[in-house]
Amino acid sequence: VEKTFIMVKPDGVQRNLVGEIVNRFEKKGFTLVGAKLMQITDELAKEHYGEHKERPFFGELVDFITSGPVFAMVWEGENVITSAREMMGKTNPSEAALGTVRGDYGVTVGKNIIHGSDSPESAEREINLFFHSNELLSYNKQVNTWIY
Ligand code: GTP
Ligand code: MG
C-alpha cells in the first residue's frame, strides 16, 4: 500500500491544529502507521529541504521548521500521496481552496501549517529520513472493508 510523510509544522502545533489534521486524515479513510512529536535539528532541516537550498528563503525555511516541535506522521492508503497534497491545498494559503488545510487555516506562504511528500520518490526519502523502520506499524483496520 502507498505511504506518505505528513508533518504538522511548528505553526500548526502552536495553533493547536494537530488533532484537527489527524482527524481529517482519519475520517478520509487513511491509516496512521507512525507518528511522533519531535524537534527538528538544523542538520535534518537542511537535509529535508535540500531541494530548496539555492532559494532566497532557504535560511528562513530552516529557521522556521526548527523553531518549535513538529508532529511527524506516516499515513497509508490508496493514492495517499496525491490525495494528501489535495487535502493540504496549494503551497500559498492565499491561493489554497477552502476545505483544504492551508485554505482553511493558513494566511502566508512562510507559515503554511502542513508538509506532505510530493511524489513517491520524496515519500520514500522523507519517511526514511524521519522514521526508523521499527517505528512504523503494519496492521489492519476493520473499517477498511467499508472503504475499499
Ligand atoms: P512543503 O510540503 O512544505 O514541501 O510545501 P510544498 O511542497 O507545497 O512547497 P515547496 O516544496 O515548493 O516549498 C517548501 C516550503 O517552502 C513551502 O511549504 C513554504 O512554507 C516555503 N516557501 C515557499 N515559497 C516561499 C517563499 O517565497 N517564502 C518563504 N518564507 N517560504 C516559502
Ligand atoms: Mg515540497
The count of DSSP E runs of length 2 or more, i.e. the number of strands, is 4
Q: What's the total helix number?
A: 7
Give the SSE order as H and E letters: EHHEHHEHHEH
DSSP helix fraction: 25-40%
Account of the protein in words:
- With 148 residues, the chain is an alpha+beta fold.
- A four-stranded antiparallel sheet has the order 2-3-1-4.
- The chain is globular, with a radius of gyration of 15 Å.
- The model has no long low-confidence stretch (mean pLDDT 97).
- The protein binds guanosine-5'-triphosphate and magnesium ion.
- Guanosine-5'-triphosphate (GTP) binds next to helix 4 and strand 4.
Could you provide a short overview of the structure?
The chain is of the alpha+beta class and 148 residues long. The chain has helices spanning 10-14, 18-28, 42-48, 58-65, 80-88, 101-105, 120-130, and strands spanning 3-8, 31-38, 70-76, 114-116. The protein has a 4-stranded antiparallel sheet.
